[in-house]
Amino acid sequence: MNDPSDPEHRWAPPSETPATTDPIAPPGPAVPSVQSPTVGQQYPPPPATEEVSTDTQPIGPSAPSSAPSPLTTPLTSPTAPTAPTHADRPVRARPSRWVWPVVALLALVVGTVGGVVGGIGYSEWVDDDEPSTQAGPVSTGDLEGVNTQPPLDKPGSVARVAQEVLPSTVQVIAEFEGVEAGATGSGFVLDDRGHVVTNNHVVADAAENDGPIEIVDQDGNRQNATVVGRSPVYDLAVLHVAGAEDLKSASLGRSRTLRVGEPVVAIGAPLGLSSTVTSGIVSALNRPVTTGSTADDSSYINAIQTDAAINPGNSGGPLVNLQGQVVGVNSAIATNGGGSFDEEAGNIGVGFAIPVEQVIVTAEQILESGEAQYPVIGARVQTGGPAQFDGATVDEVLADSPAQDAGLEDGDLITHVNGARVTDGIALIVAIRTHQPGETIEFTVKRDGDERTIAVTLDGEVG
Length: 463
Prior knowledge:
Blueprint: H1 99-129, H2 158-165, E1 169-176, E2 179-189, E3 195-198, H3 200-208, E4 213-216, E5 222-224, E6 226-231, E7 236-240, E8 251-252, E9 263-268, E10 276-291, E11 299-306, E12 318-320, E13 325-333, E14 351-355, H4 356-369, E15 373-376, E16 379-381, E17 392-397, H5 402-406, E18 413-417, E19 420-421, H6 425-433, E20 440-447, E21 450-457, E22 459-462
Parallel strand pairs: 8-13
Antiparallel strand pairs: 1-2, 1-4, 2-3, 3-7, 4-5, 6-7, 9-10, 9-12, 10-11, 11-14, 12-13, 13-14, 15-22, 16-17, 17-18, 18-19, 18-20, 20-21
């Protein structure tokens, strides 16, 4: 008979096995470890007929706990326990030789999957926050010799941008009201054929009166320029400078992927001070504005609004992103004189630029035919007086016009163009002019309290 007092036959506590733990038309997580349920060995072992229940826990991180793992309490017997024998003693389980390779393989698989999932999540996050300049090449239609490659591989400092873009920026000096060099503005080199883009209002007087026009490059060299064509409606003009083919052409980007708050740089000759660089942010997009002091010289712009300092003389100069690509042409500034737009006023931090997509379309038309076209519907709308904010009221539908053919009537209130809301007459004109002659667009119209959709195919006029 075994002596229970013999140390060799004393009961020992059971050993524990460690647990493996985007048009308004007018603009890795931490990989959770796989945690196995704790297997509690107990002594004496429960009868074979008793089932041990365990709580399941979803795979995932959990807070550490000092409480023991829940175990099923063994049934107790009212009789005294019998001393164990050698055969009764629990035997420490030894893992098979194949267990550790399997565990290592499982850890490798989990780590790989976690890395892939984390990489996908990071990629999506980066794509959402990546600067807009990374989005695909700009379409330049049939323009030749145009550069669309960003000078900088990734967004750089204002100093780097200035270094790249200043050689492509020029000062434009033109006759104005009979005074030689009476008008000064800015421009940028469009291509490798000596073409320069500027604002129409910078050279309009000289073009109409055959006055002299000059450009001044970064090194101070002066060269004569001639007008290839201009568009008063979009306030754009294309000049040609003979012998300027060696000037560095600017890189054209995309304005449609700009974001409010994104840094931009304006370059030009404000107040006649050539090669001036100012910086700011995109303050707003698709801002309908009109420039010009009279109806005859007004242009309607679906503008990029910026707080980069723009002053008289900046007109026609480039607005660029931090990869050194042109995203707009600076054209107008707001004044504090009753909300008008005046090129003679000073900067108050509200400037407007023509989107580069419109610049490309207009420049292509001018270089192809010497003229630019703009779309019309053949109706007059209210543009003066207090803002309506509820739509554009049609004053008159012209005879034999696209508007009449489509069924528009006097007094109709146009509230949307292709589903994008318009608030007043200027917003409607800007929305229409972001399209091209021949396109069909849809108006949402309110008439006699009813709402309907009317499709209009745009006609075109030169201007």
